[in-house]
Amino acid sequence: MDIEQWIWLALFAPLVSFLTILATSSVISRRLVHLLACSSVFISFCCFLFFLYHSGGGGNPPLRATLFDWIATDAVHASFTVYIDALAIVMGLNITGVGFLIHVYSMGYMEHDEDYARYFGCMNFFIFSMLLLVLAANLPLLFVGWEGVGLASYLLIGYYYNREAAAAAATKAFVVNRIGDVGLLVGILLTFFLFQTADISEVLSKASTQMAVGAPALMLLTLLYFIGAVGKSAQIPLHVWLPDAMEGPTPVSALIHAATMVTAGVYLVVRMHPLYLMAPSTMHFVGAVGGTTALFAALCAVGQNDLKRVLAYSTVSQLGLMFLACGVAAFYAAIFHLVTHAFMKGLLFLAAGNVVHMMHGTTNMEKMGGLHQKFYLTHILFFVGVIAMSGIPPLAAFFSKDLILEEEFLAGAETLFAVGLIASILTAFYLTRAYCLTFWGESHIESKIAKVIREAPRVMLIPVCLLAVLATVGGFLGFSLDGPPPLERFLAHADITFNSKELGTGFHWTLETWLSTLGALVGIGSAAYVYLQIHEHEKQPEILTEAFYFDPFYESAFIAPLRALSKWIVGFWEPTVIDGSIYLAAHSASGGASWLQRMQSGQIRSYAAWLTIGLCLTLFYFMT
Amino acid sequence: MNQVEIQIGKYKQMVPIPYNPMLWFLAGLAFVAALGVILYRKPVHACLSFLLTLLSLAGIYLQLSAEFIAIMQVLVYAGAILVIFMFVIILFQDAHEQLRLFKAQSTSRLLYAAGAVLVLTILSFAGQIKSFSGEPASLPPDFGAVEPIGKALYVDFFFPFEAVILLFLVAIIGALYMGKKEKI
Amino acid sequence: MDLFVMIVTSFLMFAVGLIGVLAKRNTIILFLCVELMLNSANLLFVTFAWQWGNQIGLLWVFFVLIVAAAEAAVGLAIIINLFRARQVVDVDQFNLLRG
Fold it and tell me: Which of A59, A51, A57 is nearest to A83 (CA)?
């Protein structure tokens, strides 16, 4: 089979599956639905494995294929072209691999749900949009994928559309995303204006030749891209949608809001990294925003009582760390952490999903506790996720998070390094807290639920186990004793590499490594001590639980005035001014007509009077 | 041409005066009778006042040496038209009383305004024509006699004459037809 | 001087006739006032014929006289028909043409 056909198979298999499910959802059986959905994602995954093999460890040139000419005007032109280089292969494997595991998991999770087909259709649509996003060769096509994942996120968060909270959360996600999308769209238009093209390779090559480092146009351009990334990847100040997005089913949270969609922002920044290298002030800004978000979200996660919300804030925090890495041009570190984070967060979310599903939808940790006997395997898997995420060697985050911190230190960004370290310590702390509150301690479970709890079925356990394995050994992708690690060697073909060259010489225990490991142990230990021994359910400070009051602030600063404005428009402006002007036009015409009508009284004497007046005036005119 | 007899002591003499007092008297009479047309309440009285107007106008025409026109005025206007009017008034004599029962429908403001504008116009024109010079031309001896007018009608202005006769014929037939009772 | 008097008389008679048309409600009297206006025009014709010695003015008067007679006949026939339809002589009641 021709290589181009592999490309289209990889990209369109989920789309075909989505359309088929959409068309035949009422007649098709459940088994066929999930078979179709899971197999299409698996086919895409196999295609990406083939691309990996085909690229020969990155040696072969990247693939490029065009389907049709999409927009063909002079000023704005784009074609449906996909571009598969090392970065795209890594992202594609990530998306389809983790996506496939989550699809299998969903077979068990959504078993009792009646709208089975809609769920799997939307999930497949999401996979397709995300693949379109990472494989796009030009920015408009990327934007199509960008919007597509936003739409899929809306559909899936609002999956339980009967619940008002879910519908509101879906709308909030979409609207907040939209705010970021404005930045990206203006950025794309600016790209057309500056470079007369939006093809990514052409833009990157033209930028290096045509523009100077630190040019204001480049700073603006990169800033606009970053605004889009802030919206999609839930950084401050557009992070408010991600915690609320936990209203959707847990596999959705795992796939979209942990492993793949929220990483689209990081992908965008890394993909355009030559531009960022040429605009240092924006890059520093990216790092600052990332660091602030990482710290802020970690603090908020400490104060949450809802299991999924802890994980949501954790995602925000880890994304902040990825942007922190981008801030010091450590793009490889960001991608590496993205990949390992997908494994770990997916593991954590799915393990939590086991608990939530078996407890019939309870996510409040105040109603859990002491579940380690009932959920024997799940709690072990969750614990694996906790220690992996905290950065205990030799599990995954040890390599990836440690790499980020090392890059910060070596680049001389002392404050960012400190921020990252504190965020890591807090990560260990709150994850352990969540683990302890859920699985250990006194049981606060409602009695009627307590009777039906048992371990999750096999179909839900196996993907979690696989993810746990990946979380354990995944770090070794970025490990080598001597010379650059395999992942870096692969990504170097896409020009994504270390910032500090000494990191390419192999793994060493340095001061930063010690600091981060100790910090992780401190975090785990203190949380275990606090929550197992001394206080069980200490009331968290209000400010943390309320996430520093971001939501109420937005409500009062932006939403309430808009609501009042729209009320005013509906109540006053629309009926009085707009309708009034139409009425004015109509009434003045009819009023004028009825005033003139008075001249047509039918009275002869009145007519004679008008005649007389007209006659005299005419005489006057002619005589004088 | 107008002369009046004046007496200085025992000496009587005809002295020419530039104006004609008879004319002025007849003009005044015509105006007063015209006022009477609109001021009398009963229509019969108004019609009779109109008769007086016509007769005084005939007198004026005589003073202005238009004898044929004067006779025509008496014969046609006073003799025919006025008679028709009188007949119709008498025909509707019950209806005239009922006029008091109805309210006027036209707004009187408009009518007063029209009247005022009219009067203003008249006055301003009257002011302008004061400068007309007064001497009448010397009239030919047969001015206003029957013969020259007849000649003009039948020779120079034959076509308008016949046309107006035709018009008159049509008018009479029309009036006859309209005046008939419906059944016939 | 005579000319001025005649012209003024003619104007005044016309004004009286026009005010009568505006002011009177009896249809027949209204028509009578119209005849009055015609007469004032006749007077003006004769006056200027006398002033300028031109006999054509008198001829004009002749035609006006004929036409006035025809018009009076037809007009009164119309008034009779109006009365037969509406049973009133009030000119304000004939307002079917109002819009």
Answer: A51
Kindly write down the DSSP assignment for every residue of A314-365, as one continuous string. HHHHHHHHHHHHHHTT-HHHHHHHHHHHHHHHHHHHHHHHHHHHHTTT--BG
* Residues A221 and A203: beta-carbon distance below 8 Å: no
Query: Identity (one letter) of the amino acid at A258?
Result: A
Q: Does the CB of B10 have a partner CB in chain C at under 8 Å?
A: no
Peptide bond into A463 cis (omega under 30): no
pLDDT value, residue A377: 85
- Say whether A604 and C96 touch across the interface (CB within 8 A): no
pLDDT for the residue B159: 94
Instruction: Identify whether the C-beta of residue A90 lies closer than 8 Å to the C-beta of residue A490.
Output: yes
Q: Is the pLDDT of residue B132 over 90?
A: no
- Amino acid C15: pLDDT: 93
pLDDT (mean) for B53-68:
93
Q: Residue B78: CB partners within 8 Å, gap ≥ 6?
A: B51, B54, B55, B58
How many Cβ atoms from other residues are within 10 Å of residue C84's Cβ?
11
Instruction: Say which DSSP state A72 is in.
Output: E
Nearest Cβ partner of A606 from B106, B115, B128?
A: B106
* Tokens found for residue B70: 């004067």
Domain residue limits, chain B: 3-139
A161 SS3 class = coil
Please choose, from the candidates B91, B55, B47, the residue with its C-alpha nearest in 3D space to the C-alpha of residue C29: B47
Per-residue pLDDT band for B102 (boundaries 50, 70, 90) equals confident
Residues of chain B with Cβ-Cβ distance to A608 below 8 Å are: 114
Contact of C18 with B37, CB cutoff 8 Å: no
Ramachandran category for residue B123: left, alpha or beta (phi over 0 → left; psi -120 to 50 → alpha): alpha
Nearest one of B38, B21, B32 to B55, comparing CA atoms:
B32
Question: What is the pLDDT averaged over residues C65-74?
Answer: 94
Residue C68 has pLDDT above 90, yes or no: yes
Is C85 in CB contact (< 8 Å) with chain B? Answer: no
* CA–CA min distance A606, chain B (Å): 6
| pLDDT greater at residue A407 or residue B71 | B71
Q: Which of residues 558-617 of A touch B (CB under 8 A)?
A: 601, 603, 605-606, 608-610, 612-613, 616-617
What is the distance between the terminal CA atoms of chain B, rounded to a whole angstrom?
60
Positive or negative, the CA dihedral A439, A445, A447, A448 is negative
**pLDDT < 50 stretches in chain A:** none
Q: Amino acid identity, residue A303?
A: G
* Topology given in CATH for the domain delimited by B3-139: Four Helix Bundle (Hemerythrin (Met), subunit A) (1.20.120)
Q: Are A378 and A456 in contact (CB under 8 A)?
A: yes
Residue A246 token pair: 């936990």
Q: What is the pTM of this model?
A: 0.70
- Domains of chain C, CATH where assigned: 2-93 (1.10.287.3510)
Model confidence at B134, pLDDT cuts 50, 70, 90, reads low
Residues from chain C that touch B164, judged by Cβ atoms under 8 A, are 63, 66-67
Sequential DSSP letters for B35-100: HHHHH-SSHHHHHHHHHHHHHHHHHHHHHTT-HHHHHHIIIIIIIIIHHHHHHHHHHTHHHHHHGG
Q: Does B92 touch chain C (CB under 8 A)?
A: yes
